[in-house]
Design a protein that fits this description.
Number of strands: 10
Structural class: alpha/beta
Mean pLDDT: 87
Radius of gyration: 27 Å
Number of helices: 13
Helix content: 25-40%
Largest sheet: 10 strands, parallel
Order of helices and strands: HHHEHEHEHEHEHEHEHEHEHEH
Strand order of the largest sheet: 1-2-3-4-5-6-7-8-9-10
Shape: elongated
Strand content: 5-15%
């Protein structure tokens, strides 16, 4: 270079940055904008990228994988050891085998949330591996995994004591009274449990669960045909935080169960429930927000109306159905408060037009 006075000047060296030199924060920021398939491809660019992604990636979904998911999981688990959320839901033919879950358990010890739903090929070996290798699990979905047994589920519960969400829908062999008693003993922080279509569950398991898991917010007992009023009464008496209850096709449920829910609302309003710290629970009084009693044909309108009146967030009006009563012809007269108000407003409007 030459200055204005004619003197020669040295050129400053240009700053060149290669892709491999990107700061980890910038790389992860870029990858947060693309799908998980691109993240996996990016991890093969170079050693630096592989290490950066492996260290920084905490969430991954492979539910898009239609073929060879098992080998893909086995190859990725040693690379992505910091995973906290992993979705392996299979929407097509079952692919996952125990070897893939064992790889996850062997390398991903920080895992918090895992979705294995519809993994029909998995056996108890997978649950034993998860219990041993992933004790920090707080959310597990194994719905549709029909090969699991209650022995393996009980072992998992004894190891993963931070479980807050557990989906066992369709796991009829695993979700038994024995397994629920283990969950009750070890998983006191449980907030959401799906036992849909687990037909061997009885009052013994549900009452044990109610006593040991006082923080339950959502409980699905859909088609648990053996349960009676005793289960609902136990839940009503021990679960002050309950917001959603599914009793679809529980035909042994009678008015007695409904009135126990109404009484639980009265306890909450009068501050008779106390949390673990001994403080009043009066500030947490929103109560039931969803109740499904479809096909519960023994119920009468008076009992269900009492529940609807006790919990103002239960609705029967169009577009807001949170009190589901389909299949119960005797309950057609049950209406929520806003539906009654709308009816009165309509009558008042007709009267005004008449004059």
């Amino acid at each position: 270079m030459v200055s204005g006075s004619g003197e020669k000047m040295e050129a400053e060296p240009e700053l060149v940055m290669c892709w491999k030199d990107l700061p980890m924060e910038l790389l992860l920021g870029i990858l947060s904008l693309v799908d998980d398939r691109m993240v996996i491809v990016s991890s093969t660019v170079c050693t630096g990228w592989r290490d950066a992604i492996g260290f920084g990636l905490t969430s991954l979904s492979l539910s898009w994988c239609k073929n060879n998911m098992n080998n893909l999981v086995r190859s990725l688990a040693p690379k992505f050891t910091k995973l906290q959320v992993l979705n392996l839901r299979q929407n097509n033919a079952p692919q996952l085998e125990d070897s893939a879950v064992e790889a996850v358990a062997n390398y991903c010890h920080d895992l918090r949330e895992l979705d294995l739903s519809k993994s029909l090929r998995l056996t108890d070996q997978s649950l034993y591996a998860l219990g041993h290798g992933c004790p920090r699990l707080n959310k597990l979905n194994i719905s549709g995994c029909s090969a699991f047994t209650d022995s393996a589920l009980a072992y998992l519960a004894s190891c993963c004591r931070n479980l807050k969400t557990l989906n066992l829908c369709g796991c009829a062999r695993a979700a038994t009274d024995r397994a629920l008693q283990a969950v009750s003993r070890h998983c006191s922080e449980l907030q959401s449990l799906n036992l849909g279509w687990c037909e061997s569950v009885s009052d013994k398991g549900v009452t044990s669960l109610a006593a040991g898991c006082p923080n339950l917010r959502a409980l699905d007992l859909c088609s648990c045909v053996l349960i009676t009023d005793e289960s609902v009464i136990a839940i009503a008496n021990c679960s002050p935080h309950l917001r959603s209850l599914d009793l679809y096709y529980c035909q042994n449920i009678t008015d007695r169960a409904m009135y126990s829910l109404t009484n639980s609302c009265m306890k909450s309003q009068h501050g008779l429930w106390r949390d673990d710290a001994g403080s009043s629970n009066g500030n947490d009084n929103s109560g039931l927000m969803n109740l499904n009693i479809s096909q519960c044909t023994a119920l009468t309108a008076a009992a269900v109306q009492a529940v609807c009146d006790a919990f103002p967030l239960l609705h029967t009006c169009p577009g807001r159905h949170s009190l589901i009563i389909s299949g119960c012809l005797s309950l057609t007269s049950v209406h929520c408060a806003c539906a009654i108000h709308a009816h009165r407003a309509g009558r008042a409007s007709l009267a005004d037009h008449a004059y």
